[in-house]
Design brief:
The chain is an alpha+beta fold. Helices cover 29% and strands 30% of the residues. It has four helices and eight strands. Strands 1, 2, 3, 4, 5, 6, 7 and 8 form an eight-stranded antiparallel sheet that branches. The longest helix has 22 residues. The radius of gyration is 28 Å and the shape is globular.
Length: 205
Amino acid sequence: MRNLRTALLTLMATGLAVTALAQVPAAAAPAPAPVQPKFLSASRLPASHTPWTAGPVRQGVPEEGSVCTTGIAPAAGTRHRDFRTELDTNARQTITVAATTAQAKKLAADLRSALETCLDRLKEQDPGLEGEAFYHGGIDVEEGAHLYSIDTSYPEVGSTDIGLFSVGRDGRAVTVVEWGQMGELDGAPLEGFRKTTRTAVAKLY
């Protein structure tokens, strides 16, 4: 009889322990890391005579800023990736994730304004510079993208450079894509760059 009572007491104690454990709330699972926007791959850039090489994705704004948009995007929430070919053609994509959609809209507007006034600012800094700047219209993708070109030259030395630029937004993510090489707008892959911009914005998320 004593053995039976001991067994019952042991069973009851075990049951109480199990019940107590069942009542302890499970530790909350850690929140998943936010999804980072995706960058272009080298194969998504406009066709070139030599293959594109993609550099690593780096945190923050570029150490060597983009001539038209330096100082516009904050370092926090920004990443960038550089691309190059063997023929002195280069490109860059910068992505900034703003804290709110309203801040992303403002950033996109500020970047567009910086591109629209870039050539005038460059001429003020260097009176010997000549050039033309054009807006090539919007692109219907996500919250929209806009395409620009800036053609510059130094008549005294005979050098010419062409740059293509775009700004696009998807929600809180804003991306800038840049392409540049020696030459003039007639020789630039404008339609290829338009396709690259569409892809860049569409694949952010």
